[in-house]
Each structure stands twice: as structure tokens, then as C-alpha cells.
Amino acid sequence: MSSQLAALNDWVHAVARLTQPEQIHWCDGSDEENTELTELMLATGDFVKLNEKTHPNCYLHRSSPSDVARVEHLTFVCTNREVDAGPNNHWMGPTEAHAKMDALYAGCMRGRTMYVVPYCMGPIESPLARCGVEITDSPYVVANMRIMTRMGAAAQARIEREGSFIKGLHSIGDLNPDRRFIMHFPEELTIKSFGSGYGGNALLGKKCHALRIASYQARSEGWLAEHMLIVGIETPKGETHYVAAAFPSACGKTNLAMLIPPEGYRQDGWKVWTIGDDICWMRPGADGRLYAINPESGFFGVAPGTSTKTNANAMAMLNKDAIFTNVAVTADNQPWWEGLSEGVPVLDWQGRPYDKAHGPAAHPNSRFTVSAKSCPSYTPRSEDPQGVPLSAIVFGGRRESLVPLVFEARDWTHGVLVGAAMASETTAAATGAVGVVRRDSMAMKPFCGYNFGDYFKHWLSFDQPGAKLPKIFHVNWFRKGGDGKFMWPGFGDNLRVLEWMLKRVEGSAGAVETPIGHLPNAADLNTNGLSLPESQLQQLLHVDRDGWYEELTAIGDYLAGYGDQAPPNLEAEQRRIVAALA
Ligand code: SAT
Ligand code: MN
Q: Looking at residues 398-411, what average pLDDT do you find?
């Protein structure tokens, strides 16, 4: 036995001594294993079979009604020094955190099977990929990890070869929200999660590993782990530009990653290729450009609002081989959620007869899990071990007012400030109030595994001689008019904005310089075929100087909140803009 394998074995057996499972199952990721698990879950009620005719091999999982979203107030970064976790994280000392978690784990798997899930984040052969092992007592987690990661024998072989892996321990416990914690020990490359079976709390490869732990590793190894989609835009000339974009959870990353060009663009030969919809790992290549991989191999997307109108690619991939979590069902057992144009819900997400009085039929954070390869816009470039070179990075949020449709940062430092200054109205992806504007730097507020001040410094550090960094932009698809309606059509029409960005990258599109960045003139955006009144477009591209003066002042206060950790260059940049706005 290799020493790596011995280390893995020792850890698995130590966990088994603590948690006392009835049996241990090492997952190989095979079809046979998946069939067995599926049958088991059908028998226990963890899975409900959906209509085999309309949705072959699709299953519904109903989670416990108090376990439907990430729980940021129960999520901790446990570094030795509190300052290393930063004011952006909840912190607990590692000794206390281990003791708390190990007490919860004691005997928690009695009568259950303990699954050992080796997985790889990123293409198995990629130097950018990293491996982990999740131990869990939830077969639902195993089934999801199988779709979301490269799980099983190949990952285990890489771990045995390389040695290093992230240790993730997960138990659903008794799903009691009072006994629920998601703990990260970045200095020990360890995750401990207890009491939730939901999404980012339980599929440890996703937010816990690929963002919180990976961001920490990336800092010392010279790369970036980001909450970004990656999309390829093929122009009529046949060139494909890759763009990474950061938006908070449930702000349309999946839709943008799977964008369908408007009719006129399609005729002209524009195509869109999906690399990823949630996470992007990137690092400088030998040519100075940033190269990106999607560490995931599937989508865990928000169901409500997904329709043939908003995301036809997603609809096409949800007809087979998908897991649905907390959606409603129709009389003939098809999955249903708000926003679908067809079908009538008869059972809501809790399995009760649907009654409007109980609220929406599908939970607002209900999800689908499906393989990336099922997406019609899938591209084999997703498997490229070297990743794809980025032409642009986009930051965005949900902002009813103030923030224009698009602007371009002057340079990298300004772009980092734009990312740090990101703010968005909260969504149902996390528990808590929905619709409150919250500062969410780079959409990483819930996911950065270390002090944001140090993180901003790390971002700035990529601006080195010889670097050919992507241009940075900011977008806001969510601006509302006086009538409360969205002013920009969004969805496929967002390609119009992306086209302007790519032309800026090539140096062939115009812009006006303003203190907050470069904005397109109305004539620089292709609005052919859109019924968008000129005055509305002007409003979407307007810079409200007084409003921005206040916003930038608030950003100054926000940066100051990171104390000595706040990078002086970023504060200088903020002062420069405030002065220009005054
Ligand atoms: O629940 S997850 O964290 O996996 C999804 C999300 O919030 O983006
Ligand atoms: Mn996300």
C-alpha cells in the first residue's frame, strides 16, 4: 500500500471509530454503484421517481423543510489567528471547533452506511485540478457528488499518486438546525459539516472545497478560486473569447453561462459555449494570460424562473438523468416550478397538496442537479487540462437603482476595486432576509476562506510586468424603472453587452470616460431588433454623480473596515474616484 493510501485509510478508520457506522462503502463512481444507491433511496423515500416517459432517470428529493439553503451564520472559518479569517467570516478557534464538531459526530452514523467519496475538482489530468475525499452518511450527497465532481476510481488513483487531498467530513446528523455547523480549517485542508443535507452545506466539493479552502490554497500558490461562471462566445469570424463572470448566488450565472443569442445574432453566426456556471479556478499561463477551468462537472442550478424563454439550454438538459430538489410535481409526476409556462402543480415542494396559501409550489431555492455534458451548449474545451484563456472578467449584482447596465474598469487596480465594491440584493440561496442590498465583494462574501483585505491584495498582485490580464467590466441586468419593471430585457439580449465588451477588448468599440469607468455611448450598443425606447437606454447608461459619490464614500468606509489588511493601492484608487466625482 502506498503511504498516501495508508494516510487516507487511517483517516477513514479514525472517522469510523468516532461516528460508528454500520458499514463503510468506498465509492468507485460506477453505474452499478449509482443504480444500487438509487434503488436504496427509492426504498427509503429519499428519492421519488419522476415521470419515466417525460423525464427518464429523473428523481425528486424533498429535503427537510428547515434545510433548504446555505446557512451563513452557521458557517465558520477556523484559522489559528482570528485576523486570518477576517471580518468577512465567522471565526472559531480550531481547538474549540474540532471539539464541538467531534462531540456532534460521536456515534452519529450508527445504523447508517458511511460513504467514502474520492473526487477531483477539475479535469483529472489538469495541473489546475485538486482532489478531495468526502466522507458522508447521505446517499443523496453521493448521488449529487457523482454529477457535480469527477468522483470515484480515477480521483482515488490521482490521490494515491499525488498524496495531497482535502479531507471533508459530513453527516446529516438529525437535521436539527440547532445542531448544524459548517466548519473550515484551511490550515489543515479540512472541512467538517454537520446537520444539513442541502447543497453547499453538504456537497463539500462545491463551496466548502472549491471556494473556501481553494481560495486559501490559491493565495499561497499564486492562483484564484472564484465564484464565477465561464462562458465561450464565438463570433461570426469563428473566434471564441472566454469570459468569466461573478454574480452572487441566484443572480443568473447559469442563464448567462447558457445564453442563447438573439435571433439576429444567431443568423450572423454567433454561438455560445458553456464551460461552467458557478466556480472558476484561474491562474496565469506562460504567455501571461489568465487560464481558467471549471472545477465542477455538473450544474446545481436554481429551478424557479428557468423556462424555455429564459434558458432553453437548461430546459433541454433537464429532460433526463437529473436530480430535482424541493420542486413541486404535476398530476402526472413531472417536476414543476414557478416560471414554467406549462403544467399545474398538484403537490408542493414539501409533498403537500398544492395550496396557494402555503406560498410557492416549488421552494424559491429549489434546484436541479445535472451533468455538464447534458447541456446543448457543452463544449469539450471544458475538459482542457490547461483551461481556457480569459478575455474579460465581469462583476455584477442585482441593483434596482444607481448602477448602470455596463461599465469598464480603467485598469486592473480599478477593476479590483470594482469587484471589491460589488453589492447586491440578497436572494433565497441563503437563509435570511431577501432583497436587502449587501456588499458582496467579487460575489465571494460567503465563500472567501480568508481575510478579504488579504484577498484584495492577492487580486492586485496579478498585475505584474508581462501579465496580459483580462479587461474587467461591471454589469447590472436588474435595473428597475419607476414602474417597478426591469429596464433591460436581459437573458439572450445580454449578448449585446458582451459584444461591446469583446469589441473593447479588440479595441474596436467606442466609450465615454466617466469617473466610475468607461461606458458605451448609446450608439456603441447593438440594439437592433429590441423595442427599447431611446430614453430608457440613456437612463441605463447614465452615471448619477451624486449617487455614485455616496456609493464610493460607502465603499471607502467598507475598505476601512478591513483595517491594516486593506490594501493601500485600493484605498488610493477609491480616493481618486471620489475626488473625480466631487
Ligand atoms: O447551495 S449552494 O451553495 O450549493 C448554491 C448556491 O448558493 O450558489
Ligand atoms: Mn454559487
A: 97
C-alpha to C-alpha distance for 178 and 68, rounded to whole angstroms: 15
Residue pair 335/324 in contact by the 8 Å Cβ criterion: yes
Q: Within the chain, which residue ranges are assigned CATH 2.170.8.10? A: 299-372
Residue 235, SS3 per DSSP: coil
Q: Are strands 181-185 and 240-246 parallel, antiparallel or unpaired?
A: unpaired
CATH 3.40.449.10 positions along the chain are: 6-48+68-222
Q: Are 145 and 137 in contact (CB under 8 A)?
A: no
Which listed ligand is nearest to 208 at the C-alpha?
1
Positions of CATH 3.90.228.20 in the chain:
226-297+380-581
- What whole-number distance in Å separates Cα of residue 451 and Cα of residue 440? 14
The second-level CATH assignment, the architecture, of 299-372 is Beta Complex (2.170)
Task: Quote the CA–CA distance of 427 and 365 in Å, as a whole number.
Answer: 9
Give the chain's count of helices (H) and strands (E).
17, 30
Ligand with minimal distance to 368 CA? 1
Closest ligand 1 atom, residue 203 Cα: 4
For the entire predicted model, the pTM comes to 0.97
Burial of 91 (C-beta count, 10 Å sphere; 0-12/13-18/19+)? middle
CATH of domain 6-48+68-222: 3.40.449.10
Cα separation of 146 and 298, whole Å?
9
β-bridge mates for residue 329, sequence order = 335, 347
The CATH number of domain 226-297+380-581 is 3.20.20.70: no
Beta strands 471-475 and 406-408: pairing type?
Answer: antiparallel
Q: List all residues whose CB is within 6 A of at least one atom of ligand 1.
A: 70, 199-200, 206-207, 249, 300, 429
pLDDT digits (tens, 9 = 90+) for 184-238: 999 999 999 999 999 999 999 999 999 999 999 999 999 999 999 999 999 999 9
Buried b (16+ CB within 10 A) or exposed e, 21-38: beeebbbebeeebbeebb
Query: Annotated catalytic, 131?
Result: no
